[in-house]
Amino acid sequence: MGEGIRTDVPVFENQWQDLHRHAVEATKKAYAPYSDYPVGVAGLTQSGRILTGANIENASYGLTLCAECTLICQAIMLEADPLIAVVIVNASGEFITPCGRCRQLLIEHTGPRLQLTTAEGLTTLGQLLPQAFGPKNLAT
């Protein structure tokens, strides 16, 4: 998925606002009875489609799925165009940054050019996860 990301597809302010709104809505579908910390994510595909995800917790904490996991699963299952932008929020609508596991998941399925918002502003996944390990590292 990640290799085909185009860098010439701009993400406009109104699209960032739509992503934020969809991510906040996604928090309402989260299953977070253990942490009481719903997380929602919305991703914009190259063709302009918006996909969402939410965290799904499990009593066996290690089996919990972060919101980004459910987003990537949806993108793969729907055979969606590559994701070019992502917004991740908590239930208050505040921007949050993906955990290390999710950075690794996102880098493999989107690539380092993925744009995302953080509390500090707009960044790329490559800036959050420099020198990432990926499939190319397994080739040898």
From TrEMBL:
Keywords linked to the UniProt accession: Hydrolase, Metal-binding, Zinc
Cofactor(s) for this UniProt protein: Zn(2+)
GO biological process: nucleobase-containing small molecule metabolic process; pyrimidine-containing compound metabolic process
Domain CMP/dCMP-type deaminase: 14-136
Binding site for substrate: 55-61
Entry's Gene Ontology molecular function annotations: cytidine deaminase activity; identical protein binding; zinc ion binding
Binding site for Zn(2+): 66, 99, 102
Pfam families noted in UniProt: dCMP_cyt_deam_1
Catalytic activity entry: 2'-deoxycytidine + H2O + H(+) = 2'-deoxyuridine + NH4(+); cytidine + H2O + H(+) = uridine + NH4(+)
Record-annotated active site: 68
EC number: 3.5.4.5
CDD domains, per database record: cytidine_deaminase
Family annotation (PROSITE patterns): CYT_DCMP_DEAMINASES_1 (PS00903), CYT_DCMP_DEAMINASES_2 (PS51747)
InterPro entries: APOBEC/CMP_deaminase_Zn-bd, CMP_dCMP_dom, Cyt/Deoxycyt_deaminase, Cyt_deam_tetra, Cytidine_deaminase-like
Assigned protein family: Belongs to the cytidine and deoxycytidylate deaminase family.
Function of the protein: Recycles cytidine and 2-deoxycytidine for uridine and 2-deoxyuridine synthesis, respectively. Catalyzes the hydrolytic deamination of cytidine and 2-deoxycytidine to form, respectively, uridine and 2-deoxyuridine.
Protein name per UniProt: Cytidine deaminase
